[in-house]
Design a protein that fits this description.
The complex is a heterodimer of chains A (240) and B (233). Chain A has 240 residues and is mainly alpha-helical. Chain A has helices at residues 5-15, 21-28, 32-40, 46-55, 60-65, 82-87, 91-102, 120-128, 133-141, 145-153, 159-169, 175-179, 194-201, 204-239; strands spanning 3-4, 43-44. Chain B has one domain. Chain B has helices at 4-25, 30-45, 48-57, 63-86, 90-97, 99-118, 135-164, 169-187, 201-231. The N and C termini of chain B lie far apart (42 Å). The chains are: A mainly alpha (240), B mainly alpha (233).
């Protein structure tokens, strides 16, 4: 789940000939020791590549696309579906939109919080899931379903898995990279204001149901957290 | 290694007791202070030199060993009740403090005393290792392992849940250490199966169990202190 060092070195040499590794690290904020370690192990993290390409003023998605395992990213960016766009709107913004639609006196123009939000990975997968998606991803990549779920719960997703998930769902390849926070919407070629436009296109009934679903999920996760906190407190109370 | 282990365990237990003195004076969780003090005495009494000294005062018939057994039962009752409450296992609580748990403790205690007084125990010797190995002595030793093992078995499921949960990392690590200590106590039930050539394994397992449990409890205290310090800025 990473880039081979040889290919990475070839890429770096191609885009920044004559620039030393330490200069690259200084400019990008990638720790030298970290990068060195990744090179030695033969696996350079995609996040390092993204930081370095940003520092070199290159598009990180195109940089990723130059590696064979990210060939899906080559070519013109595929436009996101409305469901994908809405999935990348934070739950609190959806609630604001519900209030704005139903109360003319409420603020109508509010800035949408930046991607990714707190449950962006799970919401993205739910937005592109036809009911069989997890099954197909698990079949195609060999990842165990419970590990896939663990990623969703932790709100992260390894880039290669994100690409495979998008491929199995038949949507644009970059959606998962955006949802997991590896690259930004602009970098992946999502049009500016696309999320807002999708929100405006969403009917009020659908918006309210969706916001309701998000609230319910939030309630569940808060319950879990409180339960865990109570458990910790009880241990400390009795044995601490 | 096996010579250092008892003293290391004693040191850890005494250190934990000392750490708890200030909060015990403030009246916070005194039970844990007593528990660590008890544990320290247990370990002290199982080391050769202090054992011989105490037993000499008690008449040189190994009464100190019986005393150690009773202290250990008390330690495990206290530890069991506290740990079951901490890890929120009502079943474990019932099994330790309920009628069944009290019955197990009573039977073990009475049998321990009865077997002890039915044996010829003259001649001070740590762990009664110098006495002739009779079936009575074997069952006396087995009883001494049984109650701690029983308590450990009641607590393991609850602790495991905390290890697998998503609490603070240090708390989970400490719970895991406590879990390990209790597993060793269960393992010690199989001591009769240990061949004589590997006799060193028995004290090694016993002290490792005590050490892991003490470190686990210490880790829980540390995780609490760190969390409180962080939340108070």
């Amino acid at each position: 789940m990473s880039l081979p060092s040889k290919a990475f070195q070839r890429w770096l040499h191609g885009v920044a000939p004559g620039v030393s590794t330490s200069d690259v690290c200084r400019a990008s904020g990638v720790k030298r020791t970290t990068l060195a370690q990744q090179m030695v192990r033969g696996k350079v993290a995609e996040s390092s590549l993204v930081l370095i390409s940003r520092a070199l003023e290159l598009n990180p998605v195109s940089a990723l696309a130059s590696f064979d395992s990210y060939a899906d990213l080559r070519g013109t960016p595929v436009a996101p579906t409305d469901a994908e766009l809405i999935s990348q709107i934070a739950s609190m913004d959806l609630l604001r939109a519900v209030i704005a639609r139903n109360d003319p006196g409420a603020p109508q123009l509010f800035e949408l919080a930046a991607v990714p939000h707190e449950t962006s990975v799970r919401n993205w997968v739910e937005a592109i899931d036809d009911g069989e998606l997890r099954h197909r991803v698990s079949h195609a990549t060999g990842i165990a379903p419970q590990n896939f779920s663990a990623h969703l719960t932790a709100n992260r997703m390894p880039p290669e898995l994100a690409i495979a998930t998008a491929r199995e769902a038949g949507v644009g390849p970059a959606g998962g990279l955006i949802a997991s926070g590896l690259v930004s919407e602009e970098e992946a070629g999502w049009p500016i204001g696309a999320r807002r436009a999708a929100l405006d296109r969403l009917g009020t009934a659908d918006l309210v149901s969706l916001a309701g679903d998000r609230l319910q999920a939030l309630g569940k996760s808060l319950h879990r957290q409180e339960h865990e906190r109570d458990r910790t407190e009880r241990i400390w109370e009795n044995l601490g | 290694m096996t010579a250092v282990l008892p003293w290391l365990t004693l040191f850890v237990c005494v250190a934990m007791t000392a750490v708890r003195v200030p909060s015990a004076i403030r009246g916070q969780n005194r039970t844990m202070f007593f528990l660590f003090a008890l544990l320290s005495v247990d370990i002290l009494l199982s080391i050769r030199e202090p054992y011989l000294a105490v037993d000499a005062v008690l008449g040189g018939i190994n009464l100190a060993n019986l005393l150690l057994r009773f202290l250990l039962y008390g330690t495990f009752l206290l530890l069991g009740v506290r740990t079951a409450a901490a890890f929120g296992s009502p079943a474990g609580m019932r099994a330790i403090r309920g009628p069944l748990g009290i019955a197990v403790l009573a039977v073990v205690t009475v049998l321990t005393a009865w077997i002890f007084f039915s044996m010829d125990t003259r001649g001070s010797t740590t762990g009664l290792s110098g006495l002739s190995q009779t079936p009575a002595l074997e069952s006396y030793a087995a009883l001494g392992r049984l109650y701690p093992g029983y308590v450990a078995a009641c607590l393991l499921p609850g602790i495991w849940q905390a290890v697998r949960g998503s609490g603070p990392a240090l708390l989970r690590l400490a719970s895991g250490t406590l879990f390990l200590g209790f597993c060793l106590l269960l393992l010690s039930q199989g001591f009769p199966l240990v061949p004589e050539s590997a006799a060193w394994l028995r004290p090694a397992i016993n002290y490792s169990a005590a050490l892991a449990s003490a470190l686990g409890l210490g880790g829980i205290w540390l995780s609490k202190s760190l969390a409180r310090r962080r939340s108070h800025g």
